[in-house]
Amino acid sequence: MRILEVHEAELSRFTTPSQTVVIGADHGGFRLKEVLKPVIESLGLTVKDIGVFDEKPADYPDIAHKVAQTVVEGTATRGIAIDGAGIGSSMAANKVPAFARPYAMIGLPLEIAANTMILMYLHWVDGC
Questions:
Q1: From the centroid of its chain, how far is CA 1?
Q2: CATH assignment of the domain containing 75
Q3: Residue 4: inside a domain, yes or no?
Q4: pLDDT tens-digit profile of 87-105?
Q5: Distance of CA 63 to CAs 3, 56, 86, Å?
Q6: Which of 34, 118, 43, 36 has its CA nearest to residue 82?
Q7: Considering only CA atoms, which of 55, 75, 64 is closest in space to residue 24?
Q8: What is the mean pLDDT of each run of 10 residues along the chain (128 residues)?
């Protein structure tokens, strides 16, 4: 047996897309994203975090587009985008060619056919 050290950026080479969930949030959803990542990993899935990486202002359309593009490219089979109301990220993701329309998730059960979940953080509480 050989043990190799691999840089974190190269880990995705060793996981299949079916085991990978891409996640992204705008600045307001940063803390929710950080809470969700270990939950996803506890399910045996790999998380590909595409940002944001702090609470500095960021535009949700850019993040939603990256999430959708990552799913379309096949690097991940599931995606989560987090923004203030969910509608904006849904609209941005729908602009990516060949992307199956995401379901706006506002307390609704996830449909099996959906490949991307859009979360809103309007009711996100500080200090959770």
A1: 34
A2: 3.40.1400.10
A3: no
A4: 788 888 888 877 765 544 4
A5: 35, 13, 12
A6: 118
A7: 64
A8: 66 71 91 93 93 92 91 87 83 78 44 58 50
- Extract the tokens encoding 60: 């949700």
Q: Is 110 a member of any domain?
A: yes
Structure tokens at 59: 């535009």
Q: Is residue 67 domain-resident?
A: yes
Tokens 């969700």, located at residue:
36
CA distance 14 to 46: 10
pTM: 0.73
Q: Is the peptide bond preceding residue 72 cis, with omega within 30 degrees of 0? A: no
pLDDT tens digit sequence for 31-47: 999 999 999 999 999 99
| Domain assignment present for 2 | no
The tally of domains found in the chain comes to 1
Can you give the length of the chain in residues? 128
CA 112 to chain CA centroid, Å, is 17
